[in-house]
Inverse folding.
DNA sequence: CGGAATCCCTGAGGATACTG
DNA sequence: CAGTATCCTCAGGGATTCCG
């Protein structure tokens, strides 16, 4: 509906003014979106979606992540307050990572994105094949 | 509400099963999300949100993009069917880029993400400062 | 188990110059 | 104006090794 369109435009426009035409470093929104575009953050957050997990459990869940990147990304997520870390002083040590309230709140934007991707990938695949068809030697 | 939570979980779980635990190349959803996480795609799409623009107009709107990356990203967006390209045979040539219906449809997921970022950046900033406080030498 | 530290390499992407 | 074609840099991230 029309009011919805207007709202969308407002959001987009505000983003542009703050993020692209303004000073880049000063735009918190663009800074955060850069984090979204991080290679691993989103995957890890999604893994933690249905409960706390331990380090190596996450590692196994995302086969193609290196230990270094997992450590590093978890630290960043912690620093940003999306993930909490709990250490149990057992032997050997057990460490649990869990989404905070903030971390949980980002699941909704993510799911909207995933739903779009899921609904659109066939259209995109079709566009690609007709594109390469057109550009066939 | 609860039914909403269940729906969210379902989306997230389906993504994980298809994308992370499965064969990576076979998962169209993860492939598409990789494109979202592209450094420039989202910015360009947002620039085109309120109407067609010409090449150098986009370039000026995103000051820190190189012409190489703009060309390349526009080509990818075209190939994926998000953006259409219209050439006017004038002298000098004029080329207009415009969102397709598919391209317009991704604005909504984007706006949800932006709204989240806009609503959360203060919380994140606070988390960061208390984090660095804790880890002060 | 859950990391930290180091070394190393690839490829995304910037700078520059040229063309229709 | 709207690109194409090279060259080159540098940081993201993999592989490996070591530690409490």
């Amino acid at each position: 509906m029309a009011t919805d369109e207007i709202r969308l435009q407002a959001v987009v426009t505000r983003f542009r003014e703050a993020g692209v035409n303004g000073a880049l470093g000063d735009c918190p929104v663009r800074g955060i979106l850069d984090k979204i575009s991080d290679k691993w953050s989103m995957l890890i957050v999604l893994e933690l979606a249905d409960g706390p997990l331990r380090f190596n459990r996450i590692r196994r869940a995302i086969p193609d992540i290196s230990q270094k990147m997992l450590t590093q990304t978890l630290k960043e997520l912690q620093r940003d307050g999306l993930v909490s870390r709990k250490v149990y002083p057992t032997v050997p040590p057990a460490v649990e990572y869990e989404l905070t309230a903030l971390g949980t709140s980002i699941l909704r934007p993510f799911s909207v994105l995933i739903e779009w991707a899921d609904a659109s990938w066939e259209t995109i695949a079709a566009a690609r094949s007709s594109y390469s068809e057109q550009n066939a030697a």
Notes: The CA atoms of residues 77 and 106 of chain A lie 12 Å apart. The helical segments of chain A are 2-20, 28-36, 41-47, 55-61, 67-79, 101-105, 107-134. Chain A touches chain B through 62 residues (CB under 8 Å). Residues 39, 66, 68-69, 72, 92-93 of chain A lie near DNA strand D (CB under 10 Å from a C1').
